[in-house]
Structures are given as C-alpha cells and as structure tokens.
Amino acid sequence: MSSTVGQVITCKAAVAWEAGKPLVIEEVEVAPPQKMEVRLKILFTSLCHTDLYFWEAKAQDSVFPRILGHEASGIVESVGEGVTDLAPGDHVLPVFTGECKECAHCKSEESNMCSLLRINTDRGVMINDGKTRFSINGKPIYHFVGTSTFSEYTVVHVGCVAKINPLAPLDKVCVLSCGISTGLGATLNVAKPTKGSSVAIFGLGAVGLGAAEGARLAGASRIIGVDLNPSRFEEAKKFGVTEFLNPKDHKKPVQEVIAEMTDGGVDRSVECTGNVNAMISAFECVHDGWGVAVLVGVPHKDAEFKTHPMNLLNERTLKGTFFGNYKPRSDLPSVVEMYMNKELELEKFITHEVPFLEINKAFELMLKGEGLRCIIRM
C-alpha cells in the first residue's frame, strides 16, 4: 500500500448519479487525506435502510452525484497531517457519526453526540476544506455521511474511524458500524433490562433484532416482538424473541394487549420503526412505577408524539438514543470483542452476500424486504 501514500488513487466506486436509478460502477479518483483525515481501503460494506432512503430521495433533498454507503470495514491505507492514533495497516470500522474527543459531548460520559462530527446527511464534502475527495475527470462526486463506503477507497475524518482487533473477521464485524450496534446499545446501554425482566421490541428489522439480541444478552426472560409483518417472526426466534404480536390481529391498541399479557406492562420497551404510533405504543406499554421505553427509530419530520402526562407522572420513563449511546472510537472496539468472545452472534444477521460489481442486487433485495443484511464483498 505504501507506494500510493500522498498520491491520487484511481479505483472503482458505485456512483449514484440520480435519485432511484441503479448505481453505476465508475473509475473515480480519490485524493490523499488532508489534515485529520485517513484514507481507507474498504474490504466489505453492507447496505442499510439509510442508504436506500437517501438513494430514493423521496422524503428529503439529496445531493447527487454521490457515493453512498456507511456500514463497512477496511484497512487504513494512509493518514493525513495530525493523525497520531491510526497508522497504515490498522483494521478499522468507519462510522457515520464521530468522536472528536474534545467537545463537551465527547468529554461527557453520558453523551455520544459529538458537536463536530455528529451525523450530517446534507453535507457532501469534507469539513476540513469544504471540498470532496472524490472526482471523475475533475468533476466532484459528493460524500455521504462522511463515509462513502461504496468505493474501493474512501477518505474519512479520523474521528469517524474505530480501530479494532486485527484478528476480527472484517466480513462479519462490518455490520457493527451502524444498525446492529444501534439496536444492541439501545437495549444494553439505555434500556438496561435486568436478568429475568420482560422487554417489548417494536419492529423486527436489523435494528430491532439488534435490540432483541441485547435483551437476550441481558438475560431477559420474556422478549415480545411487535411487527406488522408476520413473516419476520420465525427469524426473530434466533435472536431470543419468545412471543410475537401483530397489531393488525387485535381490535384494541397493542399497548393494552401487552399490558394484559404482562400483568400491567413490560419492564422495558425499545422502539425501532420510526412510526410515531409505534413510539406511543412502546411508551404506553411499559409498567408504571419502573417501566422504561427507549425510542430508536427516526420519525417523519412532521410527526408529533402525544400521550397523557399522567403516563409520565405514574413513573414511566421515556428515553431517546442515537447509535445506541456508543462513542464510536471509545466503545465500538469493545463491541467487536463481544463478538470475538462469542457473546454476540453476528452471523445470523447476515443473510446475503454479493460481489461489489453486483451491488444493485443488494438494493433489489432490500426493496423486496428480503433478509437482514447483505454483505458486499469489494
């Protein structure tokens, strides 16, 4: 790799030229990393719903042409000025949010919402100089959430890169850089169920099953999965889900059904859909006196959460979380170690694999609702 240090690298990338159109494999130039940046060789990436959402660009403005992708693993190819804690050859996970280690959020033990590097879906350039590191024949190609992993090489701010155990299999741990960790941390770090407790999980996609995995690891005795799609129920049993509810099968609100099933409500709930009605149900289904509900899903920008204040006064707690309250650089390496120690099972999240040149197949699978995570081998 050393021969490329300081040079522009030409490599293959999957470029989204316009909303909803298949990605095109192009030869792109990737500039060297600037101050506090690193250039990574991406070895594995996977498709997350966030990529699909911004590719479709139905509900928000999206910048094009753009290189999407943010769930990935790779190796450091070179580092820019001022980078001291990463070196060429390090095994890493790039992350869509960051940890500068200097701001009030990074210095707080309670927050992971870095002031400098928290997710910004609108920004298509690097924060150092407001320019892109990708180009085709001199024309800029924009970045996505600071990662752009649908490229054989990418440039990322050092604060958005977690250095991990070099023995960890990169084709498995790549899924930890977004959805699985978000759900897992929502349960383990925020809901914090105790051994023998009951937990309701709303939404049984990859994030929800990450939350269920957290409940399983915490020793919950009842894990109730709530989803409108009953075809997800069988798969969810692998993640420790013990009972299932489809709200469409009941005449009364699902929170009332759960309260009846659990003698007043579950001890903890984790909402992973982004649907505001599911959020309200997740809050109202926890037990008074000690119940804690955690919101993970991102709602529609105009959504409003409505519940009676007595639900709070009766000692229910409502919390929100971002990326499972994990600080990317400080905490993700220990999540990788959970996998290495065989506590956390990642293989069951990975349902498909495609070569990079067939990346559009991954989009087709997700659009059909098939599987959980599709690994894209670069």
Structure description:
24% of the residues lie in helices and 23% in strands. The two termini are 16 Å apart. By secondary structure, the protein is of the alpha/beta class. Helix 4 (179-191) runs parallel beside helix 5. It has eleven helices and 17 strands. The mean pLDDT is 96. The chain has helices at residues 49-56, 104-107, 170-173, 179-191, 206-218, 233-236, 254-261, 276-284, 310-313, 328-340, 359-367, and strands at residues 9-15, 24-30, 37-46, 71-79, 91-94, 134-136, 139-141, 153-157, 161-163, 198-202, 222-226, 243-245, 268-271, 292-295, 317-320, 350-355, 373-377. Strands 3, 4, 5, 8, 9, 16 and 17 form a seven-stranded mixed beta sheet that branches. A six-stranded parallel beta sheet has the order 12-11-10-13-14-15, sandwiched between helices. The chain is globular and about 65 Å long.
Write a brief caption for the model.
The chain is of the alpha/beta class. Helix content is 24%, strand content 23%.
Give the secondary structure arrangement, pairings included.
Layout: E1 9-15, E2 24-30, E3 37-46, H1 49-56, E4 71-79, E5 91-94, H2 104-107, E6 134-136, E7 139-141, E8 153-157, E9 161-163, H3 170-173, H4 179-191, E10 198-202, H5 206-218, E11 222-226, H6 233-236, E12 243-245, H7 254-261, E13 268-271, H8 276-284, E14 292-295, H9 310-313, E15 317-320, H10 328-340, E16 350-355, H11 359-367, E17 373-377
Parallel strand pairs: 10-11, 10-13, 11-12, 13-14, 14-15, 16-17
Antiparallel strand pairs: 1-2, 2-6, 3-4, 3-8, 3-17, 4-5, 5-9, 6-7
